[in-house]
Amino acid sequence: MQYLKSFAFFFFVILIKGHAQNAFQANYDESKVPPYTLPDVLKTTGNVAVKSKVMWEKIRRPEIIKLFEENVYGQMPKSYERLTYSIKNENAGAMAGKATLKEVLIEVVNNNKPVKINLVLFVPNKQKKPVPVFVLINNRGKNNTDPTRAEKSDFWPAEMVIDSGYAIAAFHVSDLAPDDTAKYVDGVLQLYPEQLTANNGMRAIGAWAWGASRVLDYFEKDAAIDAKKVVVVGHSRGGKASLWAAAGDQRFAMCVTNCSGNTGAALSRRRFGETVGRINTVFPHWFTKNYKKFNNNEDSLPVDQHMLIAAIAPRPLYATNASKDLWADPKGTFLSLKNAEKVYALFGLKSNLNSDPPAINQPIINSQLGYHIREGEHNLTTFDWSNFIKFANAHLKK
């Protein structure tokens, strides 16, 4: 009898788990996208039209950053007690002599507590001047950015980037905030405990973006790096963080967001693929407490993701999707870029995006807002990186 009771309980648990997993039904039908109206990116909260780049920079852009801080990503702490850098390992003969490897420890102290960011950096040798750098916010295994190069991954094709004349770097999200509903507090949030009790307090995504800025602080001290040409790159949840990092820190010269989907580059109001309610339920540690108010209530959001794209203007931005990754809403991502064009236009920058998304594997490079849909799954590949390099060539080597 006890065996039967145990079996019945086990079956009940499996049934409940299965029900919870299947309770959310994603919409993948364009005909079922509800009517929606996006917040006007060029109207202030006081309903005043923004007609110049000065008005944008002085009034509207700060408003938008504040709205995202308050409602989505949380506050971004600006101060700390101490910031130090140390080279833990250096090899001038890496990659068969083509590059110099630096393994850098970036240590930030606040409230007498430290957080340690481990940066892997390769710089091409035989360069006559400081070089631009791609820095990846790595949300996958650390083996993808193996400094020994015994293991190589298309997720971070360091050799290809070095051969193109760029430096390439990466840090892991777990150094800032482990991607876990309980352990995310073990990192940056130990330095800023007040964030945990604030309704607009920073959480994991904000912590990763904060970490990207501390890496940029280091680049400003490294004579081999052109710190005015730093490209922040992220995939999926890392792509949400790369957008927030670039929007909040204007020192980043260029942003790449790969398959970032909901609360990344895709419009929330479309309710296509992943939704605000779904992301806040499965990943409650990513965004502010305030963001939960918009679960199944996207139309009440005072922002949408086109405004985050616009906050990066006039700097170049490259967004991607994959053909089989409808969860990340390729069309919604493209529409975000289209709805940010008017802000780039304030700076006299023309977008070359067509009215509809491009065909698969047909990247749009010669545009301040670049975009492609790659054939395949939710991933970061050498095809993606090859186009990031082309986009950087078009915009950072002018």
Overview of this structure, please?
There is one protein chain. The chain has 398 residues and is an alpha/beta fold. It has one domain: Alpha/Beta hydrolase fold, catalytic domain (Rossmann fold), CATH 3.40.50. It is built from 12 helices and 9 strands. It has a 9-stranded mixed β-sheet, sandwiched between helices. The longest helix has 21 residues. 46% of the residues are buried. The N terminus is likely disordered. Keywords: Hydrolase, Serine esterase, Signal. One of its GO terms (molecular function) is carboxylic ester hydrolase activity. InterPro entries: AB_hydrolase_fold (IPR029058), FrsA_esterase (IPR050261), GCE-like_dom (IPR054579). This is Acetylxylan esterase.
What order do the helices and strands come in, and which of them pair?
Blueprint: H1 2-22, H2 53-73, E1 82-93, H3 94-97, E2 99-110, E3 113-124, E4 131-138, H4 158-163, E5 167-172, H5 188-191, H6 194-197, H7 204-219, E6 225-235, H8 237-248, E7 254-258, H9 276-282, H10 305-310, E8 317-322, H11 330-346, E9 369-374, H12 382-396
Helix pairs in contact: 7-8
Organism: Spirosoma endbachense
GO molecular function, one term: carboxylic ester hydrolase activity
Protein name: Acetylxylan esterase
